Amino acid sequence: MEMLSGKDKELIRGSWESLGKNKVPHGVIIVFFVCDRLFELDPALLSLFHYSTKCDSTQDCVSSPEFLEHVTKVMFVIDAAVSHLDDLQSLEEFLLNLGRKHQAVGVNTQSFTVVGESLLYMLQRSLGQEYTAPVRQAWLNMYSIVVAAMSRGWTKNGEDKAD
Ligand code: HEM
Which of 28, 76, 112, 137 is buried most deeply by CB count within 10 Å? Predict the structure, then answer.
């Protein structure tokens, strides 16, 4: 697993703290963005959350309890990563397993990137002036490490099934 620089860690911790204690409402911004992007990229993904097939607008999607619950789950993972910046390795098993689960429910690894874009968008919207190029890069670096571990689990699950 890759390491983050001391500067990256400092920028991530600082900006995460700036968002305040309650991260979930910020996560809701993710919902809006993810919904839009998912519709563009792969509308079929929405059915994975067991939406009614009528989930054909961002508004329907946002009001789905399954989707909102999943946002809380994503924010939990991001929060865990920020809390373990000095030892991301300790999350390896958890992230591998998470990747496996996503492979099992039919989520593509490219979709993890969409969630990453949404996270950056949420940070940009919430941090305003504080969202500098180095802050963006630090978050990208951290998210890439998380997704790389999830993707390893995803691939492993696919290989195990093929055996
Ligand atoms: C567009 C991309 C994604 C889709 C379509 C997706 C879909 C799903 C689905 C269908 C489930 C199972 C039902 C549920 O628990 O809600 C799930 C579980 C979960 N997802 Fe995602 N997911 C995506 C990306 C991510 C990312 C990037 C993260 C974390 C950074 C994440 C974190 C989780 C967690 C923590 C669970 C619960 C796993 C468990 O029950 O042990 N998801 N996801």
Answer: 112
Containing structural domain, residue 155: 7-162
Tokens of 75: 């924010």
Q: Are 13 and 5 in contact (CB under 8 A)?
A: no
pLDDT of residue 50: 59
Taking the C-alpha atoms of residue 55 and residue 47, their distance in angstroms, rounded to an integer, is: 8
Model pLDDT for residues 85-128, shown as the tens digit of each residue: 999 999 999 999 999 999 998 888 988 888 888 788 888 888 88
Q: What is the dihedral of CA 115, 121, 137, 71, to 10 degrees?
A: -40
Total of domains in the chain: 1
The contacts of residue 57 (CB under 8 Å, 6+ apart) are none
Q: Tell the residue nearest (CA) to atom 13 of ligand 1.
A: 49
Question: Which residue's alpha carbon is at the smallest distance from atom 31 of ligand 1?
Answer: 74
Q: Tell me, yes or no, whether 1 lies in a domain.
A: no
- The average confidence (pLDDT) of the chain is 82
Q: In this structure, is residue 29 part of a structural domain? A: yes
CB 112 near ligand 1, within 6 Å: yes
Position 43 in a domain: yes
CATH number of the domain that 116 lies in?
1.10.490.10
